[in-house]
Design a protein that fits this description.
With about 450 residues, the chain is of the alpha/beta class. The chain has helices at about 15-20, 35-40, 55-60, 70-75, 100-110, 130-145, 165-170, 180-195, 210-235, 245-250, 275-285, 290-315, 340-350, 365-370, 380-385, 405-410, and strands at about 5-10, 25-30, 65-70, 80-85, 120-125, 150-155, 175-180, 205, 325, 355-360, 375-380, 390-395, 415-420, 435. Helix 1 packs across helix 3. It binds uridine-5'-diphosphate-glucuronic acid.
């Protein structure tokens, strides 16, 4: 039975995973090569915003079931199974940069070499199909001098949503285990049985390549669903009486389709969908396949930005010289992550016109400063952001923006107009001001 777990990479995936394991009968050692991050975590501060994480981290540090380190030696010596949760960013051509996975596996191999007991390596980072069987296994064999069987190896994808990471770790829809051999798979299954107890989620045990493909196919499918509804929204935009929200509701009532991921808007962003969809397209090319569906999914996503700019321009009778308030910068509510945020993409597009842009976000202002610098004005309050502007664009649907009504807009804005890119509001609430919503037929 595994009691001691190692986690490599204390980011959006690794830190919540470490704290979750440490809160349920495991001793966890988490490694990151970023020393500043380690110091922060040791003090009980989370380098990222994730619901409930700060409290859980403080708890597991106090209970001494979790410790952070930058030493691979400590990590391997003090754990029985190790989860690799490092980033897999994109190369300029869209393919996956496996540098951090390679580095982590090489470092683990160095200490695995000197270990005289079985050790399980579990890759959680998203990697192209066949990477575990080929690259990861090859490095382990060559660098550790050991053979599969002396160590265990699995690919075990994560399906965590940012902002809901802990919720998804404690209550996942499913667990997918891609094991290189029977013993590795059984051991990982035992870890999850111990973690979930009586509420073990549905589990599929297969080979690593299927598991790797399941991860990509899941994200590509979800992005396709969003692009599909955005395609319908473009149709609705051009039909006077059509409303994509009602259409989505009607489609979603079919159990085979489902209502989730049918919210039209600015499109999909974040650290996962854009990277994974592009990587999948590229992966297809390597197999000699032209994945036209995936290409269209990307094209539709890009087109939503142009559509938003067109609507904004119509709403204020030409963008030239206008002051625009942007509400929401994170790629979705509940996170401070701005990677591939559609809101920032929209701002970059709007900046091509002669406009002044004021921005607000409850969590990510600082992160955006390093991206947009002095090109925009940063506002700490919604009121400050709205003051004197000609157009308010709701770009990320944070719950606090729901409180905004036409009285507030009339009070602060120069010429109140609102473009709701995430369908947060009921159009009827804004009878006295110029209003448009993405996907709505006007
Ligand atoms: C996504 C997947 O949902 C997770 O299952 C997966 O584990 C994760 O990627 C990953 O690969 O690590 P996440 O990136 O946190 O999670 O974000 P989502 O909640 O899936 O949203 C992605 C984007 O789609 C956001 O920009 C969101 O605004 C957009 N979206 C989502 C829509 O525009 N409409 C929808 O109906 C749903």
């Amino acid at each position: 039975m595994v009691n001691k777990i190692g986690v490599v990479g204390l980011g959006y995936v690794g830190l919540p995973l470490s704290c979750a394991f440490a809160s349920r009968s495991f001793k966890v050692i988490g490694l990151d090569t970023d020393l500043e991050k380690i110091e922060l975590i040791k003090r009980g501060e989370t380098p990222i915003y994730e619901e409930g994480l700060q409290d859980l981290l403080k708890r597991v540090l106090k209970e001494k079931t979790f410790k952070a380190t930058s030493s691979y030696r400590e990590l391997v010596e003090e754990s029985e199974a190790c989860f690799i949760c490092v980033g897999t960013p994109s190369n300029p051509d869209g393919s996956v940069d496996l540098r951090y996975v390679r580095e982590a596996v090489e470092m683990i191999s160095e200490y695995l070499k000197r270990l005289d007991r079985y050790f399980l390596i579990v890759v959680r980072s998203t990697i192209p199909p066949s990477t575990t069987c080929n690259l990861v296994r090859k490095i382990l064999d060559e660098r550790s001098g050991k053979k599969l069987g002396e160590y265990g190896l699995c690919f075990n994808p994560e399906f965590l949503r940012e902002g809901k990471a802990l919720q998804d770790i404690f209550n996942p829809d499913r667990i997918i285990i891609g094991s290189m051999d029977e013993r590795s798979g059984e051991l990982l299954l035992e870890i999850y049985k111990k973690f979930h107890g009586d509420s073990m989620p549905p589990t599929l045990v297969t080979n690593p390549t299927n598991a790797e493909l399941i991860k990509y196919a899941s994200n590509v499918f979800l992005a396709t669903k969003v692009s599909f509804i955005n395609m319908i929204s473009q149709i609705c935009q051009r039909l006077p009486d059509a409303d994509v929200r009602i259409v989505a509701e009607g489609i979603g009532m079919d159990k085979r389709i489902g209502r989730e991921f049918l919210n039209a808007g600015l499109g999909w962003g974040g650290s996962c969908f854009p990277k994974d969809v592009k990587a999948f397209l590229r992966f297809g090319q390597e197999l000699g396949l032209h994945l036209k569906l995936v290409e269209s999914v990307i094209e539709i996503n890009e087109a939503q930005i142009a559509e938003a700019v067109r609507l904004a321009d119509n709403l204020v009778g030409g963008l030239n010289g206008k002051i625009i308030s942007i509400l929401g910068l994170a790629f979705k509510p509940g996170t401070d992550d701005v990677r591939e945020s559609r809101s920032i993409q929209l701002i970059k597009e709007l900046l091509k016109y002669n406009v002044r842009i004021k921005v607000h976000d409850p969590k990510s202002l600082e992160k955006v400063m390093s991206i947009l610098g002095d090109k925009v004005t940063y506002c700490k309050t919604i009121e400050e952001c709205l003051t004197d502007s000609d157009l308010c664009i709701l770009a990320t649907e944070w719950a606090e923006y729901k409180e905004i009504n036409q009285e507030i807009l009339k009070k602060y804005m120069r010429k109140p107009a609102l473009l709701d890119c995430r369908r947060l509001y009921e159009p009827a609430q804004f009878k006295e001001i110029k209003f448009a919503a993405m996907g709505l037929g006007y």
